[in-house]
Amino acid sequence: MTFRSFVLGLSTALFIAGYNHFSDYVVKQGRFISNLMPVAVYGTLLVFLLVINPLLRRLWTKWALTGRELAVIVGFALVACSVPSYGIVECIPTGIMLPKHLQRLEPGWKKIDATAMAPERMLVDVSEDEESYVTDYAKGLAEGDEHISPRQIPWRIWLRPLGFWLPLVLCMAIGTLGLALVFHRQWSRHEQLPYPITRFTRALLPKEGRALGGVFHTRAFWIGFLLIFLVLMNNYMCRWWKDVLIPVRLYLDFRPLNTLVPTLVEGHGLRLLRPTLLFTVIGLAYFLASEVSFSMAFGPFIFCFIAGVLAKYGVVLRTGHHQSVKLESFLFAGGYTGIVLMVFYTGRQYYWSVLKRCFGLRSGDTIAPAAAWGMRVFLVATAGFIAQLIVVGLDWQLAVLYTALCLIIFITVSRTIAETGAFYIGTEVFPGAIIWGFLGATALGPSTMVIMFMVS
């Protein structure tokens, strides 16, 4: 990591965090960060490699960024993508202020004093002037097209909740990064997982002394690139000249055949009969084993068919909202747990050796210092996460169970990305809902459930 790569990476992260809201809600050109492989990052990287980096190399060789430096910058950018959009910015501020607003509007909330069930540290402190603070947040302080000054924001009411939420998020983020150092060697060296997105990125990055990656010198790449570019550009221009150009359909519509597969439709599989051609997915499939691609393609059909069969017997898997107690969530939770158990069993010798080296004990295997330090960071950060849940009122047993479920989700999603390159992953597993379903509302109590669901 060079100094300029650190500065450029940090600047890129700050730009993403600041520009995302403007792009999504002012320009309204679609989600700036739409999935786990954002076009905002990889598209910019492609343009930089094709245009800017060769130009920098022509001006002065040392100005061109190396592959290692670009990897650092991309890493910063990807981490920053977790902050705006669906991440921290859209969830936490609204989640800790909106309950105050809803209590004023909903008679049921007011009758039971719903916000009193949440610990004070988890919500904003509006005791000074609740009417003004809550109304200003709900309606906004800006008038017309005029923007407000940062000084007009009542920062003091946000200090208490942010003092809880930011350390909580940082503990989980730092802990999972440490865990990634532990898993990486086992997954990449011992199990030889394909890492499709990483391999794709590495193919783009230039080697030492070059401005372009090796893939840009391949004729097959340019043929495929130009064909896809022409198709997408034609479809874009069709939005402006609809009467002149003919769009190329990027989907196959088999929905008229739905009467032939009523069981699939009953299992909410109708949209599977209208598959969309995603060129990114097609490209990443070349990095995978054929059986993995086959499983990814036909797995949803099998799941929806089974769901349709169960629905005919009155067993509905998909019902309620995403954090409700439903059978589908428990199916996924069981599957996630099974995957994590398989991961630990497969690398049990390595993980046990890392754990021993973490505490300074000897092990028969050669363990990289980074893995041992990663385990130490993970254990400390996880302990910090559990401690903060206990401080706000969660029993230590539930805090440990909740944290374990969170880690199961992160490990499973990470394993899926490393093994398949899937970048559209919408998990249906929420720790609060799973614990609620297992123990019941009576055993947990309202305050405990509020804490778990707010953290979810």
Q: What would you say this structure looks like, in words?
A:
By secondary structure, the chain is an all-alpha fold. Among the domains are: 138 residues, no CATH class; 165 residues, no CATH class. Helix content is 64%, strand content 0%. The chain contains 19 helices and no strands. Helix 1 packs across helix 3, helix 13 crosses helix 16 and helix 15 packs across helix 16. It is globular, with a radius of gyration of 25 Å. The two termini are 35 Å apart. The mean pLDDT is 89.
What is the H-and-E element order?
A: HHHHHHHHHHHHHHHHHHH
Structural class, from helix and strand content?
mainly alpha
From the N-terminal CA to the C-terminal CA, the straight-line distance is 35 Å
Contiguous low-pLDDT stretches (5 residues minimum) are none
Morphology call = globular
Indicate the topology.
Layout lengths: L2 H25 L11 H21 L7 H14 L7 H18 L1 H6 L17 H10 L16 H35 L5 H9 L14 H19 L24 H5 L12 H7 L4 H23 L14 H20 L1 H11 L10 H23 L4 H25 L10 H9 L1 H4 L1 H10 L1
Can you describe this structure in just a few lines?
This protein has 456 residues and is mostly helical. Among the domains are: 3-86 and 195-248, no CATH class; 165-193 and 320-455, no CATH class. The protein is built from 19 helices and no strands.
Name the features:
single chain; 456 residues; mainly alpha; 0% strand
